[in-house]
Every structure is written in C-alpha cells, then in structure tokens.
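// run 5 | inverse folding | seed 20
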C-alpha cells in the first residue's frame, strides 16, 4: 500500500489475483469510492483487419477465425467518423490466449487477401467519462458521477445547464468543460 499526492490517494498493490479480486469485491460491496484497472488476464487482445469489404458478414469472419484456433469475443465493423458509413476495417477482440499473436500470420479470410495489424495507440491522456479524472476509464470506476459540463455531482446525461451559462471544469473549476485539452489538470 502506498499513499499518493500528499495523502489524498491510497494505491493498493495486491500480491496475487485472488487478493485483488477480494479487495475489489469488498470495495464495491461497501460502496467505497475507488477506481481500478482491468487485469491483464481479463483484457481482450485487439487487432485490426484491413482488406475485407465493408459488407462482409461478421459471423463468417468469426467462424473462419475460430476455425483457425482463435477465440473471438467480438468483431466490430468500424464506421466513418462523420458519415457513419461502414469502412473496410474491422476491430477484432480475442479472448486472452497463448496463441493470440499467431493471428498476424493469417493472410486470407473468406478467400480475400487481408492485413491484420495492431491498432494504433492513442496519444491522448485517458479520461474517465464518469468522474472526469484522468488516468483511468469509466468501466473500472466506482467514484461518484461528475458532470463534464457543469462539474456537479450528477451524470452528464442528467445535466440541466443551458448553452448560455458558462461551463465549469470538474477537475480545476475553470470556466471550460472537463474535457478541454487546455485544462491545467490535463496538462499536468
């Protein structure tokens, strides 16, 4: 156990997975504000498939990958950012297994030449959409909600702030939304 930031945060580092799960379950059961990270053994192994047509049947892709020994959790056809049209690009999430890296050697899926590669790493700082703090995501956060627009203790979807009123940052109380990249807390 370590104390961070002059006593405001306590970091627990369990010695094994069972201890981690016990601590996490007790924190959730007792409704204690905290966040955690996903265990490496629970994380999916994500790859990108390029070269398949955008209208390709996802179930066919899944069947072919499973026939080649990969346990597929999910396949998502990527949509264009603005037009929302399907792109010839697929995100594939594999269950954690020893043979996950073998997927990069696959050259053909459904008789179509494909390229399988690792997804690009995002260069942005990770920000929680629940508590608006940096360094973790909402899936593992059990802290109270903080609004991205007004900084109050409610989900952003329940915010009643009008467009004319000034935004308030949940992190620094500045006059901007919590997602603003110029925020002093974001830069730190």
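// decoded
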């Amino acid at each position: 156990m370590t104390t961070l930031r002059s006593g405001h945060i306590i970091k627990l580092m369990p010695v094994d997975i069972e201890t981690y799960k016990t601590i996490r379950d007790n924190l959730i059961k007792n409704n204690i504000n905290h966040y955690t990270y996903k265990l490496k053994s629970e994380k999916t192994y994500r790859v990108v498939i390029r070269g398949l047509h955008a209208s390709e049947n996802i179930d066919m892709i899944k069947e072919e990958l499973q026939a080649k020994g990969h346990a597929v959790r999910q396949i998502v056809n990527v949509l264009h950012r603005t037009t929302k049209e399907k792109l010839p690009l697929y995100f594939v999430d594999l269950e954690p297994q020893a043979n996950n890296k073998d997927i990069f050697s696959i050259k053909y899926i459904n008789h179509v030449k494909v390229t399988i590669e690792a997804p690009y790493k995002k260069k942005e700082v990770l920000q929680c959409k629940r508590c608006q703090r940096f360094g973790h995501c909402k899936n593992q956060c059990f802290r109270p909600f903080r609004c991205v627009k007004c900084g109050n203790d409610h989900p952003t979807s329940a915010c009643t702030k009008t467009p004319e009123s000034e935004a308030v940052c949940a992190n620094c109380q500045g006059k901007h939304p919590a997602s603003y990249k110029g925020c002093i807390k974001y830069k730190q």
